[in-house]
Amino acid sequence: MRALTWQAPNVLQVETVPDPEIVNPRDVILRVTMSSVCGSDLHLLGGYVPAMKPGDIIGHEFMGEVVEVGSGISQFKKGDRVVTISIIGCGNCEHCQRSDFSCCDNSNPNPETTDLAYGQPCCGIIGYSHAFGGYAGSHATYIRVPFADVNLFKVPDGVTNEQAVFVSDAAPTGYFAADNADIQRGDTVAVWGCGGVGQMAIRIAYLMGAERVIAIDRFASRLELAEKKAGAITINYETTNVHEALLELTGGRGPDRCIDCVGMEAHGTELDYVYDKTKQLMHLHTERGTVLRQAIRACRKGGTVSVVGVYGGLLDKFPMGAIVNKALTVRSGQQPGQRYANKLFEHIQKGELDPSYLLTHPMSLEDSPRGYAMFKEKTEDCMRAVFMP
């Protein structure tokens, strides 16, 4: 089969690789119909996530058609149209039993790296380095999905492929971001990052009862989509002081809930960005914390900061004093999308949510290196490039 492989930092190549096979009774093999880029893939591309090896297949946001089913699977059959949650749960451990699938104890067959880095082993993630299981990714003709009875969901009638593919990652991550923020009716919510996850977080925040959502980014096309498609008030941080603007919009108190949809490669215009970038390049720490610091500083006293942007390691100049003295709640995590998939399909079927506008650049798998270049550099107003093997 054909697949997009990581060769070295910022080097991708489409090549012919062996087809996947059933290795466990709970496996399913899919023919991939759509596979999207994701902002967290850029951390892999740039070499910021450990344990990548030349030849690794990347990609984790996808849908497909069932072509082969393991002997332990009865819920799915050949020909089913399905979407896969990219964060892998086993369904049996205590965390999965609590619907905390992203904390799964059993889905990562290579737990040593995350155990050492974080204190406990983390879950497996499709196409996301050997530290998170070494699973082959979705930018390929076929893919093996482990624990398929937990991680696959049939796409309902009336939901298009263009809508369904984002129920794999962008939409549940946005839902998780808003859910973690503990949004109450009438709240003002600030969202940093107007990529796919940020767009979904905005829409879900409104569905959860937010009165106003303020979206922060620097790219005009993304800010325009956040306003016209998601209904947000927008701030361009390159032309506006974010903190002052948020205080002005909230009568001096700050947003009730702040959501970081950016993560470790945050861009900024202030001195802390230069500081972070320099230390990151010198391998003295791993994160750029501009967005996280802004969110913590801006959030109202007693408010909540929700972090779904990916962070990998260590961050300097973390404003712990603001968290303590403003009595903030900080919640974070990888998305447990199994918890939200059916709810998201219901919202789509009711016309309350339409993620399809995220798909700006459909293309073949053979063109995927160009798609990643567009996505990384934000050229041609690329929100999401989606590959169709």
UniProtKB/TrEMBL annotation:
PANTHER family membership: DEHYDROGENASE, ZINC-CONTAINING, PUTATIVE (AFU_ORTHOLOGUE AFUA_2G02810)-RELATED, ZINC-TYPE ALCOHOL DEHYDROGENASE-LIKE
Matching PROSITE patterns: ADH_ZINC
GO MF, one annotated term: oxidoreductase activity, acting on the CH-OH group of donors, NAD or NADP as acceptor
Gene3D superfamilies: Medium-chain alcohol dehydrogenases, catalytic domain (3.90.180.10), NAD(P)-binding Rossmann-like Domain (3.40.50.720)
Keyword list, A-Z: Metal-binding, Oxidoreductase, Zinc
Similarity comment text for this entry: Belongs to the zinc-containing alcohol dehydrogenase family.
Protein name: Glutathione-dependent formaldehyde dehydrogenase
EC number from the UniProt entry: 1.2.1.46
InterPro entries: ADH-like_C (IPR013149), ADH-like_N (IPR013154), ADH_Zn_CS (IPR002328), ER (IPR020843), GroES-like_sf (IPR011032), NAD(P)-bd_dom_sf (IPR036291)
All residue ranges annotated as the Enoyl reductase (ER) domain in the record: 7-308
Spans traversing the lipid bilayer: none
Coiled coil stretches, renumbered: none
UniProt keyword Zinc present: yes
Name of the top EC class for this enzyme: oxidoreductase
Top-rank taxon: Bacteria
Pfam families: ADH_N, ADH_zinc_N
Keyword Zinc applies: yes
Species: Pseudomonas luteola
Listed cofactors: Zn(2+)
SUPFAM superfamilies: GroES-like, NAD(P)-binding Rossmann-fold domains
